[in-house]
Amino acid sequence: MSATLLSLTLLATSAVVRADYFSTNPLVNKDVPYDKIPYQVMTDRDDPRGFQTGYNQCNSTTENQQSMCQTMFVNHIDDFCLWAPAVAGQTIAESEGEEVAWCSKKGHGTRLIPNGAITSVQFVQTKSYIQIAGTFNQAMLGIGGTDGGELDSGGQDGEGNPMGGLVYTNSFPAANGNNATFIQARHWSFFIGNNYFCGKVCDQTGSNPQGLCNNIYDRLGCDYNAPANVQAGTFEVCKGDDMMPVGTYVGADGATSTYHQPPSESDPIDYAHLPYTPTPAPTSSCTPYASAAIFTDIANVAAVGSASAAPTGSPSGSGAPSGSKSNPTGSVKPGSPTTGSPSSGASKPAGSGSSGALAFGASVGAVMAGFAVVVAAL
Ligand SMILES: *[C@@H]1O[C@H](CO)[C@@H](O)[C@H](O)[C@H]1NC(C)=O
Ligand SMILES: *[C@@H]1O[C@H](CO)[C@@H](O)[C@H](O)[C@H]1NC(C)=O
């Protein structure tokens, strides 16, 4: 992202986006067992932002590359979904309210992630959440632009981004002694953009799901919300400790403090002078996987906009940065505040409209659209 664009859009979104509408029945409060998923989970019909664009009941008839399924899964390294636009070429900022699920496995009634798009993944399971992070070629999923934004179960109006998005996993310990296949996560967040993705899916029965999957740090990106050690070209599953709740840190005096991002989007975040630099929580027992082995369901899925099937050949090789196993400290986080200026490009999706704004990196068009919506709401 260019610094110019960044500051322009931050400025442009500053005054207009904090709509006063907030759902009386927010998504985060909705307990939706997997076998009771309604056609659309959103219920409010008076939201100035509009209504849920897709649906939550997804099945074999909705499983195609035009699917509008907004129910997604983070099960395991071979079985997860990302949020991406339904309309090819839209940025995350433009489409945050309308993302649809793109999955790495068949059977969820969704679109499928194109072959070769995912170039590294670290899947970490802690006692309170699942975290997934990695590098990908976002254009192959039709994600426009280079900047990104946050998708989460909160959103500026409580409806979630996407509005009505549901997230399930079969990786949480079965609740109530029954082996429910899929358990809903009510608190979750994803940051997608700059060819990087990260997601955190919090166990409602775990420690502090709201704090560990907090959605108020939407301008800070993956480094602060879901710090990970993603290794180029590597696919691995690890156990991990819980991180500290997002935004909290232990200062030099040993006391735990809470950082809040600047409330006004016109106030740039000074990465060089934030009170703390996040580090990934410790991981252990990491198991490596070969991408060819984990992405078998999508071997023939073509990139968005490509006329033919995806290239054949080793998915683990294609497009992946060359391996860095031998360099254990060489994690893939270009553009992170710890390694350089956040405007230096690359992979930290920072900033989005989820808690009251358009993402930074929003196009002028998106800014204007946001402006229009708010004006209409006044
Ligand atoms: C499949 O999902 C679609 C979209 O939600 C829904 O309209 C349809 O009734 C579902 N079909 C079955 C057999 O459940
Ligand atoms: C749950 O799964 C475990 C392991 O497969 C099994 O031993 C147990 O009986 C199951 N519990 C129920 C209630 O089905």
Outline of this structure?
With 378 residues, this protein is α+β, with helices and mostly antiparallel strands. Helix content is 11%, strand content 21%.
Helix content: 10-25%
Bound ligands, each once:
2-acetamido-2-deoxy-beta-D-glucopyranose
What would you call the quaternary organization? single chain
What is the SS-derived class? alpha+beta
Overall pLDDT confidence? 80
Euclidean distance between termini CA atoms: 32 Å
Shape: globular
Q: Which sequence of strands runs across the widest sheet?
A: 7-10-11-6-5-12-15
Question: pLDDT under 50 segments (min length 5)?
Answer: 1-18, 309-378
Content of β-strand: 15-25%
What's the helix count?
6
Count of β-strands: 15
Largest beta-sheet characterization: 7 strands, mixed
Order of helices and strands: HEEHEEEEEEEEEHHEEEEHH
Q: What would you report as the Rg, rounded to the nearest angstrom?
A: 19 Å
Query: How many domain modules?
Result: 1
Structural features:
378 residues; alpha+beta; 7-stranded mixed beta sheet; 6-stranded mixed beta sheet; disordered C terminus; binds 2-acetamido-2-deoxy-beta-D-glucopyranose; signal
Detail the topology: elements first, then pairings.
Layout: H1 3-14, E1 71-76, E2 79-84, H2 92-95, E3 100-103, E4 111-112, E5 118-125, E6 129-136, E7 149-152, E8 166-169, E9 183-185, E10 187-193, E11 196-202, H3 209-212, H4 222-225, E12 235-240, E13 248-250, E14 256-258, E15 283-289, H5 291-294, H6 364-377
Parallel strand pairs: 1-8, 3-4, 5-12
Antiparallel strand pairs: 1-2, 2-3, 5-6, 6-11, 7-10, 8-9, 10-11, 12-15, 13-14
Bound molecules: 2-acetamido-2-deoxy-beta-D-glucopyranose (2 copies).
Residues 177-179 line the site of one 2-acetamido-2-deoxy-beta-D-glucopyranose.
